[in-house]
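Hello,

I think I submitted the coenzyme A job twice by accident. Can you confirm which output corresponds to this input? Input:
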Amino acid sequence: MSGLSLVVPAAPYLDGYVAALRQGWSPNTLRDVSGEYLAAIAADPDAFLRGLTQPGGTISLGDGRVVPRLPGLVRWLWDGDFCGTVSLRYVPGTEELPSYVEGHIGYAVVPWKRRLGYATQALREILPHAADAGLRHVDLTCDDDNRPSQKVIEANGGTLVSRAPDDLRPGKEKLLFRIILAP
Ligand SMILES: CC(C)(COP(=O)(O)OP(=O)(O)OC[C@H]1O[C@@H](n2cnc3c(N)ncnc32)[C@H](O)[C@@H]1OP(=O)(O)O)[C@@H](O)C(=O)NCCC(=O)NCCS
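Support: Only one job matched these inputs. Its output is below.
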């Protein structure tokens, strides 16, 4: 049993989050948002936290588009120190997602807290929130060469649904996994 908890992003944990960003860790696995987030926290830490915890608002995509933030939640992984993030997003009433969203759930663990089972636990603990939101399944995408993430998904009952060429990584594939939550 690890001492890991999923916590709502809040001021007491912010120093650890900032320290991780300063070391170049990015909670967004598609692009490095560490500098952008550090600037936002420096400008207004409370507004930054509200942006993570309150519904509504917008998010900026890597291609410059600004899109509405989907309903969902963000939790930080905490074992006495900041360890990473896990997030859920969904469209109410459907398992479908807009094309700009890669999957219902994303997670990232800081490099110095990896291989402790934290991502596996975080995904396990976020799944009931997805079920509570009415989702009958969640889809997760993952790079073909990201074996650790594939193991995290498989350990939580995920199965491979499809694989497709990855536009961002020529010659590589994106894998789509599904975890069934309800029949
Ligand atoms: C993928 C990631 C979240 C895994 O986090 P983690 O907390 O280390 O994962 P866990 O400790 O739960 O490990 C899950 C499995 O992967 C294995 N694993 C973890 N890191 C590994 C590595 N570098 N090499 C080989 N296996 C590894 C673990 O041994 C474990 O396997 P087991 O169940 O057979 O013991 C983490 O490596 C990470 O943040 N990577 C960058 C962001 C990312 O890829 N996010 C997912 C996008 S789809």
